[in-house]
Amino acid sequence: MPVISAPQDFNEDDLYVDLESFAGHPLFLKCEGFNFAGSIKLKAASEMVEAAERDGLLRPDSILIESSSGNLGVALSMIAASRGYRFLCVTDSRCNLSTRLLMEALGAEVHVVTEAGDGGFLGARIDHVRELCASDGRYVWLNQYMNPHNGMAHYRRTAPAIARQFPDLDVLFVGAGTTGTLMGCARYFREWHRPVRIVAVDSVGSVTFGDTPGRRMIPGLGTSVRPPLLDTSYVDEVVHVPEADTIRVCHRLARRGFLFGGSTGTVVSGATDWLAAHGDRDLTAVAIAPDLGERYLETIYQSNWVHDLYGEHVLAQRTAAAPSPAA
Ligand SMILES: Cc1ncc(COP(=O)(O)O)c(C=O)c1O
């Protein structure tokens, strides 16, 4: 029986959904949404805050500040509340309303950037963080985009948890945002006892792997500025997924009773297509699901939002039949 005294002390690291009947090939989905922050970013947040405390960067009057599309912001709001720091999150207008309210409920201050600059929304958020840091010495910016402890969290925790459960792992599908999860897992498996193919999954319109910038409305994956943590020599392949496919996969999973977040739809879509093109049935394949679906009720799971952005027919195309009731 786990008994905790700080919210960041609990994280379910050993839960997988068997997606073989969904993907048409064996595929296990590692669920990272079962902790008090509701996402994989809890691990990055804990690792970065602990390192900053060890290095003496955080003092009792420090104000943590971070640019986040939402999930890191929630995780930092929770840890800041638990450890007695103030926290200011700089996000943008694509951040889900419920995610923003969650941060505020945990005592964080939230600034929403509404104009994208030359570096897109991400560039505008980072400019705002820099201005605030220059205005007051109490701000401490952990900078998830450059902080090595972001990737280290996954090198130390996410990848070993997968390795423990799948000693015969052949291929790992990881979504790319800051690329902390991707790089941490890829570095761990590069040193492992057998080769693992690392497949990065990104959104169409993200510049991370050199794609042309384009509209992206689903937070979590993709960037408008190339992530400094990324070292492509660790990545074997990249799959780009259009957001319309992300939406379809999220809805298909929901019809099976699994309500996941947008980036999970992207990763599962990319993994399904990759396995259909390359997979032999004996491959051991794992994909990472960064969060759950409740934060996306007013967006991905709301038909007006979907129809306005992706067209009336987006959910009618390429939609496989729902499973028939079990005998
Ligand atoms: C829902 C979701 N998916 C994926 C990611 C990407 O993870 P990473 O920043 O480790 O690349 C994030 C990061 O914020 C996220 O919030």
From TrEMBL:
Q: Which CDD domains does the UniProt record give? A: CBS_like
The Tryptophan synthase beta chain-like PALP domain covers: 21-278
Q: Which cofactor does it need?
A: pyridoxal 5'-phosphate
List GO molecular-function terms, semicolon-separated.
transferase activity
What are the GO BP annotations of this UniProt entry?
alpha-amino acid metabolic process
* Keywords, in A-Z order: Pyridoxal phosphate, Transferase
List, alphabetically, the InterPro entries matched: Cys_Synth/Cystath_Beta-Synth, SbnA, TrpB-like_PALP, TrpB-like_PALP_sf
Query: What Pfam family does this protein match (any one)?
Result: PALP
Q: Is the Transferase keyword given for this protein? A: yes
NCBIfam families in UniProt = PLP_SbnA_fam
Q: How does it assemble?
A: Homodimer.
Identify this protein by name: 2,3-diaminopropionate biosynthesis protein SbnA
Could you tell me which species this protein originates from? Streptomyces tirandamycinicus
